[in-house]
Amino acid sequence: MGITVHFLDEKVNSVIHGFIPARRANHYKPSLKAGSIVKVDHFEVVRCSSMYKITDHPFHIRFIPPTIIDEVITSAPEINLQS
């Protein structure tokens, strides 16, 4: 159990699966708003297990205790909503 998030990599136009474990969900939930653009620092990148693969990307992002989420207010990139 946990929170599944999708990250859009604007440079290569791909979607990367992210996962926040249930034990850390309450810590990050206030920073996650639908439609917001965030910057995420200090996370792990791991290979996707074929059993849990929900995107075409070979890796996924795992939130760990030092992970930080900051909403991007200025200089936010343009996101193609069709992606």
Automatic annotation (TrEMBL):
Top-level division of the source organism's lineage: Eukaryota
Ranges of residues in domain Replication protein A 70 kDa DNA-binding subunit B/D first OB fold: 8-70
CDD domains tied to this protein: RPA1_DBD_A_like
Protein's organism: Brassica oleracea var. oleracea
UniProt name for this protein: Replication protein A 70 kDa DNA-binding subunit B/D first OB fold domain-containing protein
Gene3D superfamilies: Nucleic acid-binding proteins (2.40.50.140)
InterPro entries per UniProt: NA-bd_OB-fold (IPR012340), RFA1B/D_OB_1st (IPR003871)
